[in-house]
Write a structure and sequence with these properties.
mainly alpha; Serine Threonine Protein Phosphatase 5, Tetratricopeptide repeat; 10 helices
Length: 227
């Protein structure tokens, strides 16, 4: 005859069997998915580190070539970086570096193509805005004012509000280049107000306004001129 303890243990065992029969598959699948997710996360982190390390090596080579000023080799290095690791930050920063060399070497179309790639594929809104700002500058040098304005409009639509002052400043440059003095002053004033007073670049905007006869109040007061 079974003892009370044996009966109690048997009841507990039967309860466990019943519980496992009802919920066992759910628990197993939940645990499997959790472990799979953990493994996938670790694998993703490893892949990211591997990609970053390889892309970093290519970016270092691109940087070295950029310092040498060899635009052809810079384009080739950037093309390799863009093709192999297009989603990495190194590829996006490499686009800015390559475009800078291309513009300096008079390869405006190549620079615009490089910046267009970044504007379309950049993972960070800030980088896309910078690409459009630089593209606007290249287009202004080519006297393509309407296209430059479109780049600034697209940059303005981005979410990186910390660039509003720089966008307004570049718009002032564009309007000034077109001989639109009043509109340029308004754009520069907007840039001056939006720029953090601690940022040295604000002094350059001050100089632009002063050159147009619309010095900001502090500068005007210092020179004894009524605003």
């Amino acid at each position: 005859m079974a003892s009370p303890l044996d009966l109690q243990e048997q009841e507990q065992l039967d309860d466990l069997k019943s519980f496992w029969k009802q919920y066992g598959n759910l628990i197993t699948w939940t645990l499997t998915l959790a472990l799979a997710g953990f493994a996938a996360w670790n694998g993703w982190q490893w892949w990211q580190r591997e990609q970053g390390a390889k892309a970093g090596a290519l970016y270092d080579e691109l940087d070295r070539l950029a310092n040498s000023g060899d635009a052809a080799k810079v384009a080739q290095a950037f093309g390799d970086l863009k093709e192999r690791f297009p989603r990495t930050l190194q590829a996006q920063q490499g686009a800015l570096l390559a475009a800078k060399v291309q513009a300096e070497k008079g390869q405006a179309d190549a620079a615009l193509a490089t910046l267009a790639w970044l504007a379309d594929n950049g993972g960070e809104d800030e980088l896309r805005v910078v690409a459009r700002l630089r593209a606007a500058g290249v287009l202004m040098d080519q006297k393509k004012f309407d296209e430059a304005a479109k780049q600034l409009d697209a940059a303005q639509q981005g979410k990186a509000r910390e660039f509003d002052a720089l966008i307004a400043d570049r718009r002032g440059d564009l309007l000034a280049a077109q001989g639109k003095r009043a509109e340029a002053i308004a754009a520069y004033q907007a840039a001056y107000k939006a720029m953090d007073p601690k940022v040295e670049y604000r002094n350059l905007i001050d100089a632009k306004l002063t050159a147009l006869g619309a010095a900001p109040a502090p500068a005007a007061a210092a020179s004894g001129v009524q605003p």
